[in-house]
Amino acid sequence: MQKKSYPLAKVYGLLETGPVVLITTSHKGIPNIMTQSWHTMMEFVPPLVGCVISGNNHSFAALKATRECVINIPTLELAKQVVAAGNCSGRKVDKFARTGLTPVPASKVQAPLIADCYANLECRVADTRLVNSYNFFVLEVIKAWLDPTVKNPGTLHHRGQGAFMIAGETIKLPSRMK
Fold it and tell me: How far apart are the C-alpha atoms of 31 and 47, rounded to whole Å?
């Protein structure tokens, strides 16, 4: 075997499978954007998404207080804005002004959609039992939006330490799910 030991601090880069997303919140009338990649699908119907948001993050307090957010899914064209939003704090910076991303009203939550993103998922917090121990929120998607003109979204996938992969070719294999 020619494999070698791999640093435990880098394991997350091997397991990150979902796209990098932009979580938007609005607390006390002030919208914010958070770049996030630690999320997972938990259920199909209703769609439940689990996500980890650090307790040190400005969005943590907003999500805990309002119990709602939007998961916005950007594509490669927004890579610079995604990184810019992740490299500053909403406590000090208006991230919409800093990134030039476009907020638009959501239909079911107070947090804004990001118009520039390929897809937007309006969410409400469904379960907080793991928040105090692990900063893990369970979100229920209550409204979903998709740009039908985008046929092959090149979503960003974080590999760690500034490295990203771009979603590639779609293949179809036999599946029991139809």
Answer: 24
DSSP 155: B
DSSP state of 156: E
Residues 96 and 115 sit within 8 Å (Cβ to Cβ): no
Amino acid at 140: E
Q: Which class is 8-166 in CATH?
A: mainly beta
Instruction: Return the structure tokens found at 102.
Output: 């476009």
* Positions in the chain whose pLDDT score sits under 70: 13, 16-17, 177-178
pLDDT digit string, tens, across residues 46-85: 999 999 999 999 999 999 999 999 999 999 999 999 999 9
Compute the residue count for the chain. 178
Closest CA to 107 of 90, 94, 124, 95: 124
Domain ranges of the chain: 8-166
